[in-house]
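Batch manifest, entry 17 of 40.
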Amino acid sequence: MSEPSKLKVRFDEIFEAQKYTKAIDNINKISKFQRIELGKLKIHEANFKELKDKAERRDRRPRGQATVSQVEIAAAEKVSAEKHRLKTEAHSIAGKLEQKKNHAEFLESSLESLRTNLVELKESCMNGSRLPSTNMRNAWPHIENGQMSELISSIQLLRSILSADMMVDLDDSQITRFVQRVHKLSRDKERELESVKKATADELRQTQANLTKLDQRKATLNQEKNIRRRQADMTNIDMDEGAKAKLDAALSDAEERLAKANSDWDSASWDQNLKAEKANLKELEQEATRLGEELFQINKLAKDRAALEYAKKEAKNARQSLETMLSTHQEQLNELIGSDWTPDTLQEEFEAVLEQRTHTLKDLKTQQDSAVQQLSQTQFELKTARATAAKKKAELDKNMAKVLASITDDQDNAIHIP
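Output type: structure tokens
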């Protein structure tokens, strides 16, 4: 094996080794991660076993604790019932608020209609007409009976304010006072509506505050229940005093170490260190990128060099093979294409001789085809002549037989020719 081939094989081995190294590193990382996860699962298993033991001990608690739980359950149910009642009241208040809102909208529309009617009334008064009659009921067929009654009452109020006698001759000052009075009534109604809205909103906020207090009370009761249950669990746990002292000491040590770690964390300039480490990491990444590019160029150069060496070797082998073939077949080639050739012109000389021989072969084939055609024509003519001769011979034999049959001897016997 030549040196370039060995170099190429060596590079391939290096690349494969790098792949296997990366695969092994990945396997090690995965194994480490799995060990960490296994440790976590073992810790969870121990915690679950401890919780299971506590649950079993809790199930074996005295009946007094069960009574406490029943009392807590009853209190929680009472709180839930109170909450449900307040929710029902809140829904009822919301319904009332919706009704009052609809009523307020109706009053607003009525006031707007009254304002419009006042304008029309003013124009009618100036023209000598009277207030609109009760036929206005037909103008609002979509208004409900109660709302229509309120509207009719408002119109009757206007009629009581302005009697029929006043409608005959009204000057501008009377009309202005009338309009101002109606506007005052409208503002009073609007203030009444705003007060109703405000009272309803206050009532709704109070209800929501009560619901929030009940939720907080329920959460407090649940928390107290959990605390009492945990305290009961703690009372049921049997612990050795020596083990407890060790645990307390370990807890104190852990708290001291935690406090020290927190102080170290607070005192350390982690932001600056983190920025420096990020900058260093960025430089390392850039260096790794540059080295990767250099490695790629080196690998490419090595592959190109190996390919060049391989090509040189193949060219050398081809040259040796050519020399061997020349020494073996030179005489035959000289006889075939002549002696005036070189390895560079061999292909051209061979193609020229091949073209000449092909042309000659084509001419000979043409001559052969012509000769074959002439032979076929001659064979056809010979066959025709033989057929004609056979036919004429048959006619000759027939005519000869007739002639001989007509010739007799002295005894009038036919002469037969053997």
